Amino acid sequence: MGYDPSLFVSKVDSELKCPICQGVVEKPVHGINCNHIYCSTCVRSWLRHSLTCPLDRLPLNESQLRPGPRIIVSLLKNLEIKCTNYNRGCCWIMKLCELDQHLTWCAFKAPSSEINISNSNSNNVNNSSNLVPNPDNEIRQLRNICDKRSELQELRNLVNRLTCDMENITASGEIITQQVKEISDKTDCVIRYLQYAQSQMMRIFLSREEQEQLMSNLKLDNSLVNCTVLNLSEFMTPEILMEYLRQNGMKPIKCIMGPYPFNRSRNFCVTVRLSDLDKLLDPDLWPIGAALTITNGRNKSPLITGKRSKNMSTLCLESGINE
C-alpha cells in the first residue's frame, strides 16, 4: 500500500504514484515487459486475481517483477514527508528513507493496546471515547489553534503591508494634489493673459471692421483710378516717376507717358489704387508748376497744382514750367 500523498511537503509527480492505490509508491517494482511502477504489495495482490498489467493488459506474473529502477528509488528516498502520526501531534518532517526509523521511536504512535481494543470491539471503544478524554483530540485542537495563530499572523502581516501601501498612496495623492493645484494656478494665469489678449484683439478687429465699413462706404477697396500728371520736366520718365511714388509710400500700378503740348514739359497717366489716392492728391507731393487731375472716363476733376519746391524733393522731380 502506497504512502498518502497529502503527507508529502511538495507535490509528488504522477510517475512516482502507484496506478493501483494512487498513493506514492512503497517498495517499487516493475514488470519486465511494460516497465510500469507499482507498489510491491499492490501489484502482488492484483496478480492473485489477474495475470495482466493493470495499465496496458500485457501478460504479467510475479516471476516477471523486478525491483524499481535506481533513479526512481533515489527520487523516492529524497522526498520530504511528514510523520504518519501527524494527525496525532507529531511535527517531524524528514526524508522518506528516514520514516521507518522515525516510527520506531515516535512518541505519537498509537499504543498496541488501543489497536487491539479497536479491533476486538469498536463499539465499546466508541462508547468509552465519550466518557474518557482522548489525547489525540486535544492534540488536534492544539494543532488547529497553532495553525489558526499562524494564519492570524499572516493576516496581520498582510494588514501591515496594506497599511504601508495605503500610506504611500496617500503621500503620492498629496503630491499629486499639490501638482494639480500648481497647474490650476498656472492655468488661471494663462486664462487671464488669454482674456487680455482677446480683448486687445477684439479692439483691433473692431477697428479693422470700422475701417472696412468706411472703405466699403467710400468704395475704397481694391478699385483703381487713373490720374493725369501735367507739366513735369522733359527729363522725367515713367520709371523715375513710379520710383518717386514708391518712395512716398504708394504702390503705383502703371505709368504711361502721354501727349505733351510743350517741348520742355511731359505729361503722364498714372494708375493707382483708391487707397493711395489721398497721398497722390497731396499738393506737397508735386513740384511748383506741375498739376494733377483725376480722370474718370470722360470726366475730370479740378486741377491740383503742386506746392513742393526743389529742395523738398527726394528725387530730381521738376516741372517743365519755370518758376
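That was protein one. Protein two is written in the same sequence-then-structure order:
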Amino acid sequence: MLKVRHLEIFRAVVKAGSVSAAARLLYVSQPAVTKTLRILEEEIGLTLFLRVKGRLVCTPEAEAILPEIERLFGSVQSIAETAREIQQGQRGSIRVATVSMLATTIVARAVGEFRNTHPYVEFDIRALPTRHVVEYVNNNQADFGILDVAAPSGTLEVEEFCSAELRCVMRAGHPLASRKTITPRLLDNEMLATFGEDTLTGWRLREAFRARGRSFASVFVSNSTPVLCALVREANAVALVDPFALMSRSFPDLISRKLSPAVPVEPRFLFAPGRPHSLIVNQFVAQLKKTAKEMATG
C-alpha cells in the first residue's frame, strides 16, 4: 500500500529540484530520500526520475501522476485545517431537538448569536412534541434536547437550562394592566386562556388557585403559548402562560404581569447517558444559557 510519507518525499524532490535540497527541506538525510524514491518506484512500477546532464529530471510518467498527488495533499491539508477548527470549536454540526416554543424564541436567537462567532457551524433544529424530543435524544438523533417543562424521569441525563415563572398576559389597555402583580382573586371574572390540566404546568396552575381558595375555569385551552397569546389579542382573553413568546417580541401589543402565587416553569436540557459531548455542543449549551438569561432580564 502506498504511504503518504513516500509521496510527500517525491513531491518535495520535484519542488526542490534535487535530492539534497529535498532532504534539507524535510530535515532528513539524503540517503533516506534516495531510498524512499527507490521504494516508491518499486511500489507503483514507474520510473520517476532520470539524470540528464547531471540534473534530476521528472519522467513523463512522474509528471502524469503529479496532479493526483497535489490533489491528495490538498485534501490532507483540508483535513488538518478542519481538525484544527473542530478542536478550537470553530467548525462542526449541532443537532437540537426541542419544543416549538423554545425553538422559535431562545434557541433561534442563540443560534444567531453563536453563528456570529462560529460562522462554519451547521445546525439541525427539530421542533417536536415533548414525547418526540425525548425519543430523539434516546435514539441519538439529536446531540441534546430541550423541554420547557420538568423532564420526564428515565435514563436521560437532565441539566437545568433556565428558570422562569408563568406570567399573566393581557392587552396593554386591559383594566388589570395597571397592576404590577395579578392574584387569582383579580381573575375571577376574566376569560382565562392557559394550558390544559393534563399538562404539568396546567396542573400546577390549577393547584395554585385551589391553594388560594379560588376556583379555576378557563374559557380557552391550548398546548401552544403563541396560540394563547393570539387569543389575548383577538378575543381580549387573559392568558396564564410561560414568558418565552413575549421574550421574542412576537406580540408587541401585549403586556405581561407577575402572577402571585408563582407557578414555576422549568426548562431542562436532556442528554443521552454515557455519550460524550463535543466541544462545539458544550459551547452552544453555554450560549443557550447566556441567551436565556439575557432575554429574561431584557
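Residues 164-265 form a domain with the D-Maltodextrin-Binding Protein; domain 2 fold (CATH 3.40.190.10). Keep this in mind for the problem set.
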